[in-house]
Design a protein that fits this description.
Elements lengths: L6 E7 L5 E7 L8 E9 L2 H7 L3 H4 L12 E2 L3 E9 L3 H5 L6 E4 L2 E2 L5 H4 L10 E2 L14 E4 L5 E3 L6 H5 L1 H13 L7 E5 L3 H12 L4 E5 L3 H9 L4 E3 L6 H7 L6 E6 L4 H10 E9 L11 H7 L3 E4 L7 H9 L9 E5 L4 H7 L7 E4 L5
Parallel strand pairs: 11-12, 11-14, 12-13, 14-15, 15-16, 17-18
Antiparallel strand pairs: 1-2, 1-4, 3-5, 3-9, 3-18, 5-6, 6-10, 7-8
Helix pairs in contact: 6-7, 6-12, 9-10
Length: 363
């Protein structure tokens, strides 16, 4: 710790639209904790929704409050081990100087789900960047990896951009796995943001009969086509339900994956999916979504599957990047220093922004 700065910068969430760049003392790793120098931390749609006060984070009559403030934001991080508490290096199987990433959840290892191997559904459910003290996140110069973290080493062959996409692409792979895609399936993916573009690449590795991508932003559709989509449609310009049905003899797609976060995409999917199809819901929504549940049951007998986080997928994505089966090219579009966090948040969601990174240390 002798060569590390005594003070660090960190972006602290104090409440909706009350984020502050603050100075704090350098964290001290306790037993089985790693101190990590952050290489980059991505901005996720959930970060933006949280900033703007979405009820699923701050609570309403439907959702209890989830966020515990003040908390350092950020769950899409990677970095370098610079110090370790007692037993930490042995506990995680890493060494000082290794590039590492921790999964976004900090499981309690005590609840029903953790005890039964379903750690990503942990009842306590601490996610880095949302729970004060227990899980301060990566929008900082340095952060602590907690003792129950799922930590993975990153090989030196991966670029910083690839490292920054391990977390979101791991979520992408899990969502695609939930779709149980078969060779003869026609797959429709709604949403070509960072997660969706990771899904495009993962779906192509499943080699379905056809992959159709839907989004409202031309730049994203163009990139989806480059990454392997067979067809791309803009619902603002054409009747995408009619297009998909015309391509499938009127039946509809076999698998529909919703990754746009737009409530309209849910109803769109229910209209275009065939009877007995598989509907995967991935997105985090900023507002409630209403659908006609009789479509799901009485009319189509659909298999509805949620997708949450990325269990068992980090090592897979690291391997895919290492073998050049996935790419970060064109997906990381913007990088900002921590001091420009507000500009970075405002840039998220603009026409040609896909993955926006906060980079604490000058490259």
């Amino acid at each position: 710790m002798a060569n590390l700065p005594l003070k660090i910068k960190r972006l602290v969430n104090h409440g909706p639209e009350d984020y502050r760049l603050e100075e704090a003392a350098q964290p001290q790793p306790g037993e089985k904790e790693l101190l990590v120098k952050i290489g980059a931390c991505g901005i996720c749609a959930s970060d933006v929704h949280c900033y703007h006060g979405a009820p699923m984070f701050w609570g309403n009559e439907t959702f209890p409050r989830y966020v515990k403030t003040p908390v350092v934001s950020g769950h899409e991080f990677f970095g370098e081990v610079v110090a370790a508490g007692p037993g930490a290096l042995e506990h995680f199987g890493v060494a000082t100087g290794d590039r590492v990433i921790a999964e976004q959840i900090v499981p309690c290892e005590k609840c029903y789900y953790c005890r039964n191997g379903k750690y990503w559904m942990c009842e306590k459910h601490d996610i880095y960047g949302f729970q004060a003290q227990d899980a301060d996140g990566g929008m900082a110069d340095y952060m602590l990896f907690k003792p129950t973290s799922r930590v993975h080493k990153i090989p030196p062959t991966l670029s910083p951009e690839e490292c920054a996409l391990i977390e979101p692409f791991s979520c992408s792979v899990h969502a695609v796995n939930r779709g149980d895609i078969q060779f003869n399936d026609v797959v429709v993916l709604a949403g070509a943001g960072t997660l969706g573009l990771g899904m495009v690449q993962a779906i192509k590795l499943k080699t379905p009969k056809k992959l159709i991508v839907i989004d409202t932003m031309p730049y994203r559709l163009s990139l989806a086509k480059q990454l392997g989509a067979d067809e791309v449609f803009n619902p603002l310009e054409e009747d995408v339900v009619a297009q998909v049905k015309a391509m499938t003899n009127g039946y509809g797609c076999d698998v529909y994956i919703e990754a746009s976060g737009n409530p309209a995409a849910v109803n769109q999917g229910l209209q275009m999916i065939r009877k007995l199809g598989r509907f995967v819901e991935f997105s985090v929504f900023s507002r409630e979504t209403s659908v006609d549940w009789s479509i799901i049951g009485d009319r189509k007998e659909l298999d509805i599957r949620g997708a949450h986080l990325s269990p068992g997928c980090y090592e897979t994505v690291i391997d895919f990047f290492n073998r050049k089966l996935m790419t970060a090219e064109g997906i990381v579009t913007h990088k900002f220093p921590l001091e420009s966090w507000k500009l970075a948040f405002d840039t998220f969601g603009t026409a040609e922004a896909i993955k926006v990174l906060l980079v604490p240390h000058a490259e």
